[in-house]
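User: Hi! I'm working on a homework problem where we have to compare a predicted structure to a textbook description. Could you give me the structure for the chain below?
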Amino acid sequence: MQLPAFVFATLLVLGITTAQAAGVRNFDIPAGPAGPAIRLLVWTPCAEPPREMDARGATFFAVPACPVTGEKLPLIVMSHGRRGWFGGHHDTAAALADAGFVVAALNHPGDTMRDTSRTDSLSVLVERPTDMSRLIDYMLDGWSDTSRIDPQRIGLYGFSFGGYTGLVVIGGDPDLRKGLPNCETSSLRACKQLESGELPDQPTTHDKRVKAAVIIDPYPVFVFPEENLKAIAVPVQLWSSDPAQNADGLSGCCAAAINQRLPIKPDYHFVDNARHFSFLATCTPKDAREAPAVCTDAPDFDRVDFHRRLHADVVAFFRKHFAESAKP
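Assistant: Happy to help. Predicted structure tokens:
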């Protein structure tokens, strides 16, 4: 298949080769007793070369509705940051799909770029992990190609509030109570609710089906004292942006505190000069014009080159630990 010249040129600018390909398609988890309807995107291994496509104003390189290739494929579920969306890490999802993974990313109800009605609220902190379990349920039981997934190889990728979400899913117990240190001075709506005496209306959800997790700049970290992370037993690859590049107090920076508290030493990566948003998808010139706050990195920081290394390390991490978990 011949790629149009302008698409090929853009692929070169972004450092993407025509060997990278991922199918992508929207799905919906219906509303039910467990929660509201959830919109998701699923990336899958694809035998066709990528095409430029527009997704809510962002530029993706993928193949819409491409037939899934492969059997017994590992599954990675993705959790976005506060006020994020399921396409925020589309280049990482595509790289994983090209490496043979199925990747499912959702929009957390009430905490997305288009629906901020419950952003920072106590209900979101409680329900985000449940969203991820519902996503796994759907991919294993309701997705059209569920027979292609290996249910013994499920991983999680979480960024910022998604990092918090991932820590809970793999066994962390957030300390959600009145008088929590650092909460009194936080601007989080959840902290104000806790200080007023409101309590979670249900426990947070753990999911033992997740066998490995990539956690990036988890936030908030003050809800995880060391003793509340002791139950985490799965391998973790932990990434941190550079505090020197997040002097504006941007939520999500950084991961050093969690690195020190995890009971099993994680595969820890500190990224010099990385800003919090440097982990979001690489930007085309159009993206940079329309979302400069998200696309602007520190001087001399090359997001495209960094994402090549990020993707290689993430793929290698999941492959290694899925192989180890499969050993008798």
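For your comparison, note the following. Strands lie at 22-29, 38-45, 51-55, 58-64, 73-79, 102-106, 149-159, 210-216, 236-240, 267-270. The chain has nine helices and ten strands. Good luck with the assignment!
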